[in-house]
Amino acid sequence: VTTPEFTLCDGLRAAREDRADSPAARLAFPRLAREFGTPLYVYDRGVIETQYDALRSAFAARFRRLRIFYAVKANTNVALIRFLHRRGAGAEVVSRGETFLSRTAGVPPGAILFSSSSKSPDEIADAVANGILLNVDSMDELEQIAEQASSAATTAAISFRVNPGVDPDTLHKINTGISESKFGVHLEGGLALEAYRRAAALPGLRIAGLHAHVGSQIVDPAGHVETLRRLLAFARELKERLGVVLDFVDVGGGLGIPYEDGQKVMSADDLAAALAPVWSEGTRALGYEPELWVEPGRFFVGPSGVLLARVNSVKRTPVRTFLNVDAGFNTLMRPSMYGAYHRVRVVGRAAPDEIVDVAGDVCETGDLLAEGRRLPRAAAGDLVVFLDAGAYGFAMTSEYNARPLPAEVLVDGDEAVLIRRRGTFEELLRSQIPPGRFS
Amino acid sequence: VTTPEFTLCDGLRAAREDRADSPAARLAFPRLAREFGTPLYVYDRGVIETQYDALRSAFAARFRRLRIFYAVKANTNVALIRFLHRRGAGAEVVSRGETFLSRTAGVPPGAILFSSSSKSPDEIADAVANGILLNVDSMDELEQIAEQASSAATTAAISFRVNPGVDPDTLHKINTGISESKFGVHLEGGLALEAYRRAAALPGLRIAGLHAHVGSQIVDPAGHVETLRRLLAFARELKERLGVVLDFVDVGGGLGIPYEDGQKVMSADDLAAALAPVWSEGTRALGYEPELWVEPGRFFVGPSGVLLARVNSVKRTPVRTFLNVDAGFNTLMRPSMYGAYHRVRVVGRAAPDEIVDVAGDVCETGDLLAEGRRLPRAAAGDLVVFLDAGAYGFAMTSEYNARPLPAEVLVDGDEAVLIRRRGTFEELLRSQIPPGRFS
Predict the structure, then answer these.
(1) A435/B78 CB distance under 8 A
(2) pTM of the model
(3) Average pLDDT score over residue span B419-437
(4) Option in B186, B314, B362 nearest A318 (CB)
(5) Is A9 labeled as catalytic in the residue annotation?
(6) pLDDT tens digits, A198-239
(7) Three-state SS string across chain A, please?
């Protein structure tokens, strides 16, 4: 066994650092493409570890009673859920399917928080039966949960997701804490207080906590700070007016990551430092210290992942130049759906010298993965790397245009482990019933 | 056997005609939900037949040499592909997966047209090996096809998709014929002429036709008319300058359907009537009559389909009222992705009396399936129907938020046949590799 000059992780790092023409990158990506094919999601285990540890250290240094949850929707691969769980994270889930995947990954029911604005009767029944904490989103849902718990002769632990009326100034589509949002029971107008009052009166329920989540990809702590201030003030109201003492206050997730070169975002340390004085002051006034819960998703897994794709053809038109790749918005939805930006590297090519659009292989004009980028001159067969694709990448993939789903690989040092095999053409038929006499 | 008072199709029709509180609708939808669950895609076979026959009659009456293709990407269920193929339609496909599904549905290679802006080497090889017509999108791709055909010692039949520089005034994201689009070789600047010249010189290729497609959901014939005019003028140029005689001219698809009450859209007859004089004049000048090809997708299957969902909860906030349903943008992508409008009916409720948002169960603020609709007052457990969901409905579904894919049912008279079973939680793991030592 010889030690390789450069490991796969060296190649991934080189791409992140804009050295995709370096020997490390020229070794790593062709090797990954050869072994696993394209399009391919590749996650760097060390980066997940770094991100998780950074957040844990930042918060553990300032909050005595802390619980960290991984917001599973960012990436539902059981290998990642399991990895984060083993480091100490619970699972914040939004569906029975995510509960199922988290349980498969080894997360016990007591470390799962179920949060969603629209829970089906089946999802409520499953959570109640398995003792999973339900984060309640409306009065209607509260009644359904109480009824389910009573009919199952058990007690459901609940919190409410409240709408704090805070605008964290992120993309509109992923703003969840503003007043118009579909999420949460409004603090405004005493609605949240009324909800807790009703919960305290209903049989079959145990009030465990208080939750808010003001959005995704937030780059400044101000929104979280204001939210925590309001949550703690409301916790005091709950104690004084209803005698409710909370096990936890959950400040949500939403920590942004830098998608663009030079983009300034708050660090986990920035956020923890900004929250700490509010917490000290607020819990002192409250007279007791609940657990602080925090539930990032993107922050843990986003920077670890890249999407590796191959150039099918290069097309020069009088107006634009297109790199046509073998991935599309069915592979990476964020650019088409949110106008999101992912850095793009061309493997093994130096010196940016033309402005191109990176076009997907979905048969729609809107399927552009990157627009107007200055990139090295590429040719058919070249590999391109989309950075920061670990969160809301694979999770949002579809078989649109009848393209099988991509594979996923977890890399550590120089080893790559397939954690999801590539989809197949036959799988496109997996649930279709052979045409009968109607057709 | 007793004849039911109302058939399932009566119920579907009632929903389309805004009589979702009628006895027919009150019978049909609860029965479908009970038997197949929700969320559920339901297609009315008779509507597909009517749409197909309307287009065929309108065109066959005016064009002597006609071929109709179904743009499979609109809905890739093999039952629908097969149904349309048996009525005479070929398959217009955009991927090897769609070729596979079309072949499974019984479409022979000679009735398949492969059109995509980004074809992988594997897709090119498969099409060449199976004698599937390739609609070429760039010079780079042309060279690859010629090389593939030569190395396989065969001849590949090709057409070019040209970019005619026509703006059909549809949604920007689905405009494909404008100059900035990623699709087609530009007529502008002599690029398309150069492409045909090169194709005529390369070994292994047979020039079969000429193609343009200016967009989707087009409601006025003007764009198609101008496109056909330019295609025929260019066909004349091809004949005169290169001696190329075409088997066919393909004017694309893109016929819109009315998504809103009272929305005016061109009929198939409107389009055929508008194209006919351009065709007569153009082919007279051309000196021969190629086949006219047309390739609708949405027009055939869109109006036939509904998405049936159930209200999980109703939430009244100080700002808005939300019907939280058990479907989201993972079930019906068009509203979130394109801002598209689908009519919504509440089954068994009369008299619209409140303004609501219909919110999906995806954990994102942008997941609203309908906004600001005046609907009857609904309650948890009620069924809601999204109309015109037969095209780009199931095709764009994903397992985002770890929700299994919905089922599909084809209805004829009073019979409902499952044509795709519901996804399962276990399927979420179908391709995941059990976590190894890395996690």
Answers:
(1) yes
(2) 0.96
(3) 86
(4) B186
(5) no
(6) 999 999 999 999 999 989 999 999 999 999 999 999 999 999
(7) CCCCCCCHHHHHHHHHCCCCCCHHHHHHHHHHHHHHCCCEEEEEHHHHHHHHHHHHHHHHCCCCCEEEEEEHHHCCCHHHHHHHHHCCCEEEECCHHHHHHHHHCCCCHHHEEEECCCCCHHHHHHHHHCCCEEEECCHHHHHHHHHHHHHCCCCEEEEEEEECCCCCCCCHHHECCCCCCCCCEECHHHHHHHHHHHHHHCCCEEEEEEECCCECCECCCHHHHHHHHHHHHHHHHHHHHHCCCCCEEECCCCECCCCCCCCCCCCHHHHHHHHHHHHHHHHHHHCCCCEEEECCCHHHHHHHEEEEEEEEEEEECCCCEEEEECCCCCCCCHHHHHCCCCCEEECCCCCCCEEEEEECCCCCCCCEEEEEEEECCCCCCCEEEECCCCCCCHHHCECHHHCCCCEEEEEECCEEEEEECCCCCHHHHCCECCCCCCC
